[in-house]
Amino acid sequence: MKIIIFGCGQGGQTLGNLLSASVRLLAFADNNPQTWGKEYEGIPVISPAQIPQMDPDLVWIAIKNPAAASSVLSQLQDLGYTGPVQNLSALLDQIDFRLATIRLLAKEIRQRCLPGEIAELGVHQGASARELNRLFPERKLYLFDTFQGFPEKALAAEAERNPSVRWKDAFQDTSVSQVLEQLPYPEQAVICAGYFPDSLPSAPPRFAFVHLDPDLYESVAQGLRIFWPLLVCGGVIFVHDYRSLQFPGAGQAVKEFCRKHRLTPLPLPDLHGSALLVKQSEDS
Fold first, then answer.
1. Is the confidence at residue 101, as pLDDT, over 90?
2. How confident is the model at residue 187 (pLDDT cuts 50, 70, 90)?
3. Is residue 237 within 8 Å of residue 265, measured between CB atoms?
4. N or C: which end of the chain has fewer CB within 10 A?
5. What's the rounded Cα separation, in Å, for the pair 220 and 226?
6. What sign does the CA torsion over 77, 80, 84, 85 have?
7. C-alpha to C-alpha distance for 83 and 58, rounded to whole angstroms
8. What is Dmax (Cα atoms) for the chain?
């Protein structure tokens, strides 16, 4: 099968990594003229006007925003493309590769009888926390978040590294009560509200699994610095946004930490490019 992926951003590149070996990716198409003529992993980026003449068997629309995806579908029809079209958002509404990996890791941790509690830095409304609480009902779940969105000083520090920061009001639609209502075992939750690492308990426990999803460089760097020594041997730190185009500081923090400690991050093919860090020994 020959396909074209419409969208060469985060969604398009992620979809390209998920394709079967029997699928031939002809090109990425994009409405941004600045991308035309470039390549991603050896695959050319073309103008949408070139799609009909390339005669693909299928066009994937790799755009999550429903209105934008609908607009692209109309655009394809106007260009004269009459072949099949599939939408990445429909797939992602049903399948979550990040959660699938977390579920498999939880099974491994249980089967290996690893000691330690569970932690999440960057909780927002509690979707991931709900799954962690369900997967580890017998363990304490430490939830670190301001529960008020990004702190001003964190955004200011991020803006110095990335002047295009536009997240001032992001993730404010949450509260402790809202998160607790999501949890099947709320009695196991330990709420650590405030600016991390100031919110860390005075005597933190050891952890078997840590989910890092604070988005910003400094928060990810602090999370790795604090949680890695607290991780049990065989434990896992799961970092969201490792290859994110929206939050590039997260990946930068991971790479710097891994260089310092001679670690290799294991990337995953989820939409935001998560990565795993597995602690092999107490000395690492």
1. yes
2. very high
3. no
4. N
5. 10
6. negative
7. 6
8. 65
